[in-house]
Structures are given as C-alpha cells and as structure tokens.
Amino acid sequence: MSIGHAFLFLAVIWTTIHFLYRIWYRKGVYTLLPAYLGSSAHLYRSTKVSLNALQLKVSTSQWNVHHDRLSTTFTRKANRTMNTLFQAVYNVGIIFSAIGMLVAVGGLVWVSAGSAWTMFQKISLGNSSQSHEASRLVKRLENTEDRKPIGTLPSAQFPGIIPIIPGITVPLSDLPIIILAVFLSQVVHELGHAVAAARETLPIISAGLSFTICIPAAFVTFPTCGMKNLTAKARSRIIAAGPFHNLIFWCFLVLVTHSKVVNIFSVIFGYNNMSDTGKVVVAVNEDSPLSLYLLPGSVITKLDDGPLTLSNDFWTEYLTGLPKFSSLGWCVSRSVLVKSDSCCTLLNTKASPLACFESFDHSERGCLDPVPVLTRPSSNGRCAASKDCSEESTCVIPHEEAQLLRLSVRPRLDLTEETTILWSGPRKEVWEEVQVGNWLPRFRLLPLGFPRLFTEFWNYLTMTTLSLYLFNLLPLAHLDGFELLQSLLDLAFTESSETFVYDIDALEAGEDHLESTRSRRRWKRWFTKYAPILTTGLVLSCIMFAMINVIY
C-alpha cells in the first residue's frame, strides 16, 4: 500500500462517516418520540454522536447500569473477600504504575541522549566519510582484514528502541492491523479504570470511543466532584488501574507467545509449524523477478550458508543488517579466474552477467559467471582455504560489491531436494518483496497468509499494549501519569483539602513544624509544575533529534 492509496482509503472512510452522520443527525432531529420505547429506542436516546472535521466521537450511558451492578456486587457483605482481594490487587497496581512512570521517563532520557549522540557522530564523521569514499575508488581492496563494509555511518534509529511508524519503520499496509491493536489496548486500559471505579463505588457518566484521522481511542468519563471527594489512595487505585491492566494483559500475551498453546491451536485449525525447517513463502511482489522462481507455499531453508532455523528473526536480521561473509568458498580454476577483472572496478559501468570474485587471501581476483559457481556447490566443491583445492585451483568467494545472495528453496514439502536461487542486488529488496511466515496449511482451501496476518496482529497487540502502559504513565497533561503523580504527591505530602487544618496544627505545634509543612507544600507545587514541563522537553528533544537524524 502506497501513501497515495492510504490517503485515498482514509478519504473514502471519512466521506462514508460524514454521510452516515448526516443520516443519523436527520433521524435525531425530525423523528418524533416512538410509540414503543424498546431497547433500540433506549439505546438511541442514551447515545450521543458528534462529528467535527476528522474527529468522530461516540458516547453512551448504556453501560452505566452494568457498572452500578458491579459496584453493588463489591459492596455486598457476602463478597467482602472479593472486595479485599481487588483492593490488594489495585494497591499493587499503584506500585507498578509508579515504577512504570520512572521507567517511561528514564526511557525518554535514554532515547534523547542516544539520539543526540547519534546526531553528533553523524555530523562529526560526515566530512571524513566523504573523503574516505573518494579514496575507496583507488584503494578498493585495502583495509579488508575485518571484512566489514567501510565508510558506514551510524544508524539513525533510536538506540535499542524502534518506533512503530507505518511507511517508515513498518510497512504502510500494516496500518489497519496497528489501528485495531491500538483500539483493543485502549479498551483493556479503560476497562481497568471502570472496574477500579466500581470497586470504589464511583459511578460513570458515559463510556465511548473516538476516531481522530486514523487513530482510535476508547474512554470512560467519571464525575469530577466524585473523583475529588475520594481519598488520595482511592484515586490512585482508579488512575493506576488502566496502565496496570495493560501490564497484566501484556504479561498474558507474552506468556501465550512463549507457550505451546499457539502451536496446538494452529494444528487444530489445519496448519503445520515449519520454523524447524525454514520460512514459508506467503507472497511475492508481482513486479519482482523473484515472483517467477519463488512460488507461494515453497519453503526457504537457507540464506547463503545460514540456516533460517538459527533464530526466528534470522530472515530480517540477515537481509537488513550488515553484509555477512561466508567462511566457505568455492574451488575455481586460476586460469578461468584471471582471464578478466574488468567487472571488479567501480569505473566500469557496463552491464555484465559476470560478477567479481576474490580469493580468501585477497591475492587474486577476477570475473566469473556466478550461476554455475554458486548454484551448484557440490560440483564445484566447497573450501575453507586455497589448500583445500587442487594446485591449479584457488578458493574464492564473491566480492562484497557483487551483492549476490543464495536462497536454498524446497518447492514442495514432500521433496527433500533443494534448489538454489541466485539473487543479484541489494539484499534488503528481497526482504521488501518477499513475505514469509512459519505456518503452512495442510489443506489447499486454507488461506496461506492468515497465520502470518494473525501473528503480525498478535505482535502489534503485544507492542502497543506495553507502549500504552508506559506512554500513559508519562507525567503529561491529559495522561494518567500526571493525575497519578498528583495523587502520589497527595499521599506523600499534605492534601490540598486539608491545607487550612494543617496550617492551624502547624501554628499550634510551633515554628519548626510550620516550616516543615510549608517545605512539603513547596516540594509538591514544584513537582506538579515542573514535572510536565521537563517531560514535554524530553519528548520534543526526542522528536527533534530523530528528525535531524533522518534528514541529515
């Protein structure tokens, strides 16, 4: 999905929303009171829909009665044990939310410092990198002892944290899945607030959802006066319950991921896990040359000499990371190798079917047809050094500039014989044009891409749930973190509702106690005022450094 298609898709969605809203609005204005006030009429009366440009908001009081019933359940004497248990659980939630706030702020500091350091490295190494690239035209084969690409600049991505940005860090086609994952995480979050409020016998005004441009959100509204009249600890339980539910939900998702439950369900629904063999080809870009050779349903077992069973992320790491160099080469006749080395110079711009090969000790190089050499390793013989070959042969490997990649493929599961497909070009293009998965359907009627789609959704749901837990705990306005910070400060210091009482007590206790009380209030005001400002500064610095790293 291109950016243009994404904008067109959103335009169609918002046109449809505005059209349906006009129908709803006219029905609400011109329809008289119904003769029969059934459940549908009650739902219509208790639901409010507002539309402002690219923001849709739907709120309803339909769930209020269920929330009141849950509150009544908690207050019954027969359920005193359950009430105490929920209180203890949400007390633990306060602790984990406070820890999450510290982790979130610490993460911002880490990302900001790391991005600033990356920017400094790129600026300081920019000029030296350009001069180094010029010298590579002359001394191409020098400084190759470490066999690593030279002249590579530091990565512009966050240190240890890769943000989910559709079209940049993840495919734009994943946007609908991401939106659904964010919405479900929001529902879990707001459900936590609602359950904790029911336990504190705090009613809700309404519940609903909003959709802004392409970002969904769920919400639960509480009465402001009722919230303020609660004790600081009760308020902390309600505020922390949302992020705490996200944390519990994340632990559940991780537990299911690392258990064998997924494998059992997949087998029941007719899929075999092929992760012990390789990666299943789910789809190939129609415009890619690989579409003629890689058929959906075939299994890729190796990339060059690396088995895809080494790790679950080997496919992505190998194709998007730095070039890897094989420890094994091929025995090739010296007379064939030294015929020509014209393709081994950067000054040669002519298209050629030949590729540059070099010996392990870099003493010899030449141009060879890579197809008979790399696609038939058994006939050419593999070697670890030139001594493993005959006297008239030498052990060679493709030069790093040749950009050759071997894919070992099993066209059918019942075939043990593998074919080798040779790709010439950037390896990242293979990663972009070929979609792979771990599951192969046992029946032809089953969709090949469903397990991969579900796996991506599960992974996004796991990431967004944890991200929502940390992001909501940042001490910023309109986030749970700021309200939780105020409640925790009320617990640690004097509550504002008792200011006058504490002043009288302080006067009676003497000047020292009065100064101590004032000092605590100053610290409380300082945290409340400057914590959001400092956090906002960290967020803006992260965004600014990231943009500079991407542009520069």
From TrEMBL:
Gene Ontology MF term list: metalloendopeptidase activity
Subcellular location: Endomembrane system
Any one cellular-component term (Gene Ontology): endomembrane system
Residues annotated as transmembrane: 7-24, 88-113, 161-184, 204-226, 247-271, 530-551
Membrane topology label: Multi-pass membrane protein
Broad class of where this protein is predominantly found: membrane
Family matches, as InterPro entries: MBTPS2 (IPR001193), Peptidase_M50 (IPR008915)
UniProt-listed GO biological process terms: membrane protein intracellular domain proteolysis; regulation of response to endoplasmic reticulum stress
Coiled coil: none
Keyword Disulfide bond: no
Peptidase M50 domain segment(s): 178-266
Keywords: Membrane, Transmembrane, Transmembrane helix
Signal peptide: none
Xref: PANTHER family: MEMBRANE-BOUND TRANSCRIPTION FACTOR SITE-2 PROTEASE, PROTEASE M50 MEMBRANE-BOUND TRANSCRIPTION FACTOR SITE 2 PROTEASE
Official protein name in the record: Endopeptidase S2P
Species assigned in the record: Gymnopilus junonius (Spectacular rustgill mushroom)
